[in-house]
Amino acid sequence: MSRNVRFDVAKGIAILAVITIHVTGNRSRQIAVEGSQFWWWLRYINLAAAFAVPCFLLISAWLWTISLERKSDLWEFVKTRFVSLAHPYLLWSLIYITFRTRAGTSEPWPSLSRIGFELSFGKSAYHLYFMVLIAQLILIVPLFAWIFKRFKVGFWAMMAFTVAFEFVVLTIQKQTHLVVSFGSFALGYAPVLLPAIWYGLNPARLESLVDPLNFLNPQEKEVLESKLGKDVHRDAVFMRLMPLGLLAISSFGQYFRVHSMLLDKRTLDGSLVQYANIAYTSGFAWLVVVLSLLLPFQRTVETGLAWLGRNSLAIYLAHPAFLVVLTSPSVSRVLPKGYINVPIVWFGTVLISCGFAIAVEKLGLNGILFGQWRRKPPVPPTENPLPAS
Fold first, then answer.
1. Residue 252 to residues 43, 183, 256, 283, 376, Cα–Cα distance (Å)
2. What are the phi and psi torsion angles at 365 (to 5°)?
3. 46-57 per-position pLDDT tens digit
4. According to the model, what pLDDT value does residue 383 have?
5. 188-213: string of b/e by CB count within 10 Å (b at 16+)?
6. Considering 109, 145, 273, 314, which has the largest number of Cβ atoms within 10 A of its Cβ?
7. Of the candidates 271, 278, 299, which has an alpha carbon nearest to the alpha carbon of residue 382?
8. How confident is the model at residue 130 (pLDDT cuts 50, 70, 90)?
């Protein structure tokens, strides 16, 4: 499948959001006084970036569905993705276990049962739970793709099914606490996964989203454009985006209200927090992806974000180690304090992580470190925001 630059752009935005989450979380703990204005700003920025992981899951589910439909070989789909995921996940889990027990906090080496728990839920390092979520997509994508095709599910039926499914999942979890680490449970992200799978099965609906005039036949489209202008579809697109934007903005307010109360140490119903999290992170993940598909970008911005997206796995896996170094006592003492410290650490983490990704590629180590044995094809900027059909 040919790579699509606009999905890489969305992944580039998401990986910058991931680094923002980890840098602001670290700085709010280490250099900010809890309850101070500085601390509140860091916490709010941290919360705002929480769409990052749902955004990655959305893109993976969407593109994996397209891939599965093209090849129609379930075993090959499962085998290829399992091998390509297991290699970097196990290797980097071992790296981080060793890092924290030998060079980090000097913890004792974990027992086999503890290692098993950490591998099951992505707890070898705080960010590796994402790899467990991606592993679950290997089963989720074929299952729901089959359900949507088997029952010929339309858009609104899919949306109703998604809402009902998420409600059932959250209710079962609340009543039973069936999943020990719910954040590592991919079905808790149904509002990004199920619509993404549906769109992967229905590429024509994506075309109509990007250009609603595609609903018309070529002759009708040409006549309408000759009367209203070539850019008429852009107005229609943004009208179609208004409900998504309003949903994201309304959920944004509720999400911050809920988390402000939590940070104030007020007691809240867990379901209210879950629903606020899901509404905000899902809505903004969809908004980021759709805008990445639609908006014109400057060539340099598009190329840079797409490069980040293509190298997001290397950056994602390695950046926490660089953040630990940048915030260690020996380095921290030479960095300025206060507000300026945060962008310095953020840019430092981004630049070192990008340098690491470049070095790994130049040395031909992508296969060993990330299981990416084939070189990714170069992706020039493109005017076509749609996946190849």
1. 14, 20, 6, 9, 36
2. -100, 5
3. 999 999 999 999
4. 42
5. bbbbbbbbbbbbbbbbeebbbbbbbb
6. 314
7. 299
8. very high
User: Model-level pTM?
Assistant: 0.87
DSSP 181: S
Q: How many CA atoms lie within 13 A of 82 on its CB side?
A: 9
Q: Give the 3-state DSSP-derived string for 40-97, with helices as H, strands as E and coil as C.
A: HHHHHHHHHHHHHHHHHHHHHHHHHHHHHHHHCCHHHHHHHHHHHHHHHHHHHHHHHH
- 150-208 pLDDT, tens digit each: 999 998 899 999 999 999 999 998 888 888 888 899 999 999 999 999 999 987 766 55
Q: How would you class 220 by CB atoms within 10 Å of its CB: exposed for 0-12, middle for 13-18, buried for 19 or more?
A: exposed
Q: Which residue from 9, 50, 27 is spatially nearest to 348, judged by alpha carbons?
A: 27
Q: Token pair of 273, please?
A: 């927090």
Q: Is 220 helix (H, G, I), strand (E, B) or coil?
A: helix
Q: For the chain, what is the mean pLDDT? A: 84
Which segments of the chain are extended strands (E)? none
Among 89, 10, 85, smallest CA distance to 51 is for 10
Angle at the Cα of 188 (from 184 to 194), degrees rounded to 5?
A: 120
**pLDDT of amino acid 244:** 60
Alpha helices in 335-389 (DSSP H): 341-362, 366-370
Q: Tens digits of per-residue pLDDT, 168-184?
A: 999 998 888 888 888 89
Q: Whole-angstrom Cα distance, residue 198 to residue 121?
A: 27
CA dist 29 → 32, 36, 46, 318, 349 (Å): 6, 12, 12, 21, 17
pLDDT tens profile 16-63: 999 999 999 999 999 999 999 999 999 999 999 999 999 999 999 999
Residue type, 270: G
Residue 354: predicted pLDDT: 97
Residue 258 has pLDDT above 70, yes or no: yes
Residue 386 in 3-state DSSP? coil
Q: Write down the pLDDT at residue 243.
A: 60
